[in-house]
Design brief:
Structural class: alpha/beta
Number of strands: 15
Strand content: 15-25%
Distance between the termini: 45 Å
Radius of gyration: 28 Å
Oligomer: single chain
Order of helices and strands: HEHEEHHHHEEHHEEEEHEHEHEHEHEEH
Helix content: 25-40%
Number of helices: 14
Amino acid sequence: MQIDIDYIRELLLDSERNDSYQIFVHRRYYGDDREEKKEHHANLLCEVGLLKRNNDTLYSGLVYRMTNEGHEFTATIRDESTWQSIKVIAGKYATPKTLKRIVLEHNKAGLGEKLKNREMYNLIVLGALWNWQENSKAEMEEYDRFLTYTSDQIISRFDDFGQDQLDRLKVYPCLFMNEGINDELAHVGEITKISRSGKLLKFEYTFYQDIRPVPNLLIYNKMASFDIRDGFEFSRTHWALKDVNLFRTLLTLPPPRKSPKVFEIDQYQDIDNRSVSVMMPFAAEFDPVHRSIQHVAEKEGLFAKRVDDIWEKDAIIQDIVNLIDSSSIVVCDCTGKNPNVFYELGIAHTLGRDVIMITQNPNDIPFDVGHIRYIPYHNNNEGLQKLGEELRERFKTLKD
């Protein structure tokens, strides 16, 4: 049964509302999905020490009682906003063990108080070359950079911006970004120190290590949810204060994809728009086909590779997946019904790449994808020239 972390919170809060702090599972109703779900999650909470199962169970069911750790855990997650931020940190596939660890870390570090101040957040954008991870200090010119793209209503909440007012900004979480709207990674954290030095604002910062970086593209696609009203903010160094709950907004973004078990893929895709991967049998007679594809790709400002052009991992399947995952276009030669090519074709479709199927024999196109347009060709000079012309048109279309 899948773990439902919102149900875990609901179960614990319901237990607190009961004077005896108990949870009952009614066995006479067993077979009811609701009771089975309750027992499953209660047992998971027992495993991490938040609940304890009573030995003197009722004839009609099971009884669970909240432990001291359970009370501390529930006190932390009772606040809805705090719970939302914990969910962001925990991720989509959280377990009770993960939740307990995060709650303990929050309580130990005193982050609970800071997380209460999340009706706003700081947005700091620096140039594309700034490396947030390699530094812990940064600066920017104050004039025409500080609190731009910030509403007058927010600015009016501050009397002035002396040191005391600057320090008030530290209680709000911060989204640290580089300029750009593609695969640049934005980090979530907080400002630990801020001061003026002449015309400069200097600040120190730290990241929340349990919150994964987010590609700028995902934020750009939902920028209104982040209170970003002007796309130009993604191309200008500035410091803004935004009037939304950052943690809750992060929850609206697509979750990182779950990694397969046979090979690895990055949690967030990193596509090179100039890259074309070529999947075909490893046989000498396909070398002219490969060269033709490379030649056409170069004319269109692209570069085409097949897996024998690279050799990065001990397992060849990982090299193949890396090549497909980083490419914007995948060319699959289905000639000969090669099982490896069909496997790679499936990976390309699953990863959502633009796939161009080619073949010397239309009967070699798999039945399941027979409805998708493909390019037939002959492996001779005239046939490869015609293949190049058709590929060039497809490349142009997909680039546009």
